[in-house]
Amino acid sequence: MDAFEQLAADIFWAEGYWVRTGVKVELTREEKIGIGRPSAPRWEIDMIAYRATARELLALECKSYLDSGGVHAAHFAEGAKHASRYKLFHDGLLREIVLNRLRLQAIDRGLCPEDVTVRLGLVYGHATSHNAKLLAGIFERQDWLLFGPEWLRAHLGRMASGGYENSTAAIVAKMLLRPQASGPVTGELVRGHPRRS
């Protein structure tokens, strides 16, 4: 599993969602023909998250882009050069068919009730401040969900101050975000092994 997807999944789980990653959507032959991809393999969604109190099933794309220029708002514009990275956000018919099949599949497997609403969203780790502002506007106009670095940091902070959770995100959050007692650094690595002071 992608590490960034795992981080996002841990956060959603801590917030009361059940979560699955790498979810395959089983489109019918008719649906594949309807989206112009008759021989396409199963569609994959990075992560789905469901919370019973909201009766919403979130279909989430996860993009970290931490050591790059980040997510670009221009990629969500009509006819964008990199539209293929965000197919569900660009193709309305594809989005409708895939999200409806995801909903039916989840209901059929007993994962959520029949009156569930499916919403599309993006979890991202980095964008410039200019792009972050533009992304927020685009996603609000389209009624898509957007979870960016500030959201990630805020929820990691909650995990750091909460009780013990046996997840990578919670452990790292506690180690890095909790106030630490000051003291000498004693674990300098020499050839892969800690050297004692």
Provide a compact summary of the structure.
Helix content is 39%, strand content 20%.
Could you characterize what this model shows?
This protein is α/β, with parallel strands linked by helices and 197 residues long. It has a single domain, classed as Trna Endonuclease, Chain: A, domain 1 (3-Layer(aba) Sandwich), CATH 3.40.1350. It has 7 helices and 7 strands; from the N terminus they run αβαββααβαβααββ. It has helices at residues 3-14, 29-34, 87-90, 92-108, 129-142, 149-161, 168-177; strands spanning 18-25, 43-51, 56-63, 117-124, 145-147, 189-190, 193-194. The strands form 2 sheets. Strands 1-2-3-4-5 form a 5-stranded mixed beta sheet. β2 (43-51) and β3 form a beta hairpin. α6 (149-161) packs across α7. The chain is globular. It starts with a helix and ends with a strand. The mean pLDDT is 87.
- Domain count: the total is 1
Strand order of the largest sheet: 1-2-3-4-5
Sheet with the most strands?
A: 5 strands, mixed
Any guess at the CATH architecture? 3-Layer(aba) Sandwich
The number of strands is 7
Question: Order of SSEs, N→C?
Answer: HEHEEHHEHEHHEE
Radius of gyration: 20 Å
CATH class: Alpha Beta
Helix tally? 7
Low-confidence stretches: none
Strand percentage, roughly?
Answer: 15-25%
Return the CATH topology. Trna Endonuclease, Chain: A, domain 1
Q: What multimeric state do the chains show?
A: single chain
Structural class given helices, strands, pairing? Answer: alpha/beta
Average pLDDT figure: 87
User: In whole angstroms, how far apart are the ends?
Assistant: 38 Å
